[in-house]
Amino acid sequence: MAELVGQGVMPPKLITYLSSLLQRVADSNDLTAAEAAVKKKCEAEEEEEEEAQKVSVFHGLTRPGISVRSYLERIFRYANCSPSCFVVAYVYLDRFSHRHPALPINSFNVHRLLITSVMVAAKFMDDMYYNNAYYAKVGGISTTEMNFLEVDFLFGLGFHLNVTPITFQTYCEHLQREMLLLHPSPSDHAQPSSAVLCTGRSAKEHHKYICFNDDETSHQQQHQLAV
Fold first, then answer.
1. By the 8 A CB rule, do 93 and 174 touch?
2. Per-residue pLDDT for 217 more than 70?
3. Residue range 24-41: mean pLDDT, rounded
4. For residues 178 and 21, is the Cβ–Cβ distance under 8 A?
5. How far is the C-alpha of 147 from the C-alpha of 135, rounded, in Å?
6. What is the 3-state secondary structure (H, E, C) of 74-99?
7. Do residues 212 and 195 touch, judged by C-beta distance below 8 A?
8. What distance lies between CA 42 and its chain's CA centroid?
9. In this record, what's one Pfam family (predicted)?
10. Looking at the DSSP assignment, which residues form a beta bridge with residue 207?
11. Do residues 125 and 85 touch, judged by C-beta distance below 8 A?
12. Domains of the chain, each with CATH number or no CATH
């Protein structure tokens, strides 16, 4: 197996902002799941959805000991993919979550979803990229598991991998808003961000969504990150 080849540069700011967003998303869904467990009012359909989460290939038995930020920085350091791949990976995670609301991003699956989405993005975006065995080593999983994750993720996306320049710019702007949440300026307090954390409700569940306000364009409104 090839040895890991790391970059000798500091991770770009987008790694910090993306990891912050995903960590907040995972924490929010962990809290939602904990509250649901305390209430113990799960009906048959909810139990089926919870069971689907448990058997998902992305769902680990325990929470990884590495933080989302450290894990994403590790991927950046060793994957040697272009920075744009991380934005595209964010788009893929959004699409995947939107197509599978019964699989909210949480602390049990966020790491596997991250390594898989970045690998798929690198294969689609970059001319040169590492193979699955290398990404498995970066992600701390077996090559066999990496292969299964890739296939499941691709089918989960419906093989919808193309990202238009408009969509790419939309998600870049959303990460810029995450920067304002982490480092607000005095003028920002007077103007609420157009990216808000809201609650998506179905008949049986309450999940968090990072979504765009009504003042966004119609194209932007169709993108939301389920959490």
1. no
2. no
3. 65
4. yes
5. 10
6. HHHHHHCCCCHHHHHHHHHHHHHHHH
7. yes
8. 26
9. Cyclin
10. 200
11. yes
12. 13-164 (1.10.472.10), 166-226 (no CATH)
CB distance 102 to 36 below 8 Å: no
Q: Which range (114-128, 150-164, 192-206) has the least confidence?
A: 192-206
Q: What three-state secondary structure class fits 105?
A: coil
pTM metric for this prediction: 0.67
- The SS3 of residue 104 is coil
CA gap 182, 152 in Å, rounded: 33
Work out the number of other CB atoms within 10 angstroms of the CB of residue 89: 27
Distances (CA, A) of 196 to 87, 139, 170, 174: 19, 30, 15, 10
Residue 40 is predicted with a pLDDT of 58
Residues 6+ apart with CB under 8 A from 194: 177, 212, 213, 215, 216
How many residues does the structure list for the chain? 227
Q: How far is CA 141 from CA 60, 137, 146, in A?
A: 11, 6, 7
Listed in sequence order, the residues at least 6 apart from 5 whose beta carbon sits closer than 8 Å to its beta carbon are 78, 80
